[in-house]
Amino acid sequence: MTTYQEMIQSKLTDLNQKIEAACARSGRDPQEVKIVAVTKYVDADAVGQILDAGVTHIGENRVQDGVPKYEAHGDKGVWHFIGHLQTNKVKDVVGRFTYIHSLDRLSLAEAINKRAEALDIIVPCFLQINISGEETKFGLDPNDILAFVEACSNMKHIRIAGCMTMAPVVDDPEEARPVFRGLREWQKRLQALNLPNVTVEELSMGMSGDFEVAIEEGATFIRLGSILVKP
């Protein structure tokens, strides 16, 4: 009988082939693309097996679920907080999770910066941008991005390491391409500003149903849940 860890290893082999193919189509180096295993579906024991299978990056959506998994396996991987983050939960995330993918408002930036200053660390954060304009999604309105980034650039314990977006759930992944392309265009605009603490070298975009298109449009972190971790 195949163990859970062996299943993950098999899925990783298949996913890496798809990543290599998408990179070949778009003239990219597969080493630029990193899988974040979205582990909200599984328990701490499964997370341990996912890490042992060779996954480096773990993504959690909820603080109350993610912290116990971090406490069990935090030294084995790189931890990403990818869900909506309430300011009163910042103290539980900063210092545990290396990356925060959901920076979308000034009050959150200030809370992260304050906590990071107390710990004497710099937190790489991703601007969550609502490219699709869906009312049901969190994220910065594109009209508010420039002022927000300028404010964040003055916070010495935050580094704007990238941009993140969530595309609409569609049957045809091609329909998500304009959203991913829009995020890449914002990356270029923000890099051109040459602001302090704003490097924007990463793009967090693409999930189980559309990651290949996201890679073709420049994704460096793809967030894979069901396609990877579900038995």
Structure description:
The chain has 231 residues and is of the alpha/beta class. The chain has a single domain (4-229), classed as Alpha-Beta Barrel (TIM Barrel). Helices cover 41% and strands 18% of the residues. Strands 7-6-5-4-3-2-1-8 form an eight-stranded parallel β-sheet. Helix 1 packs across helix 2 and helix 2 crosses helix 3 (63-73). The chain starts with a helix and ends with a helix. The relative contact order is 0.15. The model has no long low-confidence stretch (mean pLDDT 97).
For the largest beta-sheet, the strand count, sense and barrel status come to: 8 strands, parallel
Question: What is the strand arrangement across the widest sheet?
Answer: 7-6-5-4-3-2-1-8
Name of the CATH class: Alpha Beta
Mean pLDDT: 97
End-to-end distance: 13 Å
Number of helices: 9
Task: Determine Rg (CA atoms, Å).
Answer: 17 Å
* Form type: globular
Question: What multimeric state do the chains show?
Answer: single chain
What is the level-2 CATH architecture name?
Alpha-Beta Barrel
- Name the helix and strand elements from N-terminus to C-terminus, one letter apiece: HEHEHEHEHEHEHEHEH
Helix content range: 40-55%
Q: What name is given to the CATH topology?
A: TIM Barrel
Strand content: 15-25%
Instruction: State the domain count.
Output: 1
Which runs of at least 5 residues are low in confidence (pLDDT < 50)? none
Classification by helices and strands: alpha/beta
Count the beta strands. Answer: 8
CATH superfamily: Alanine racemase
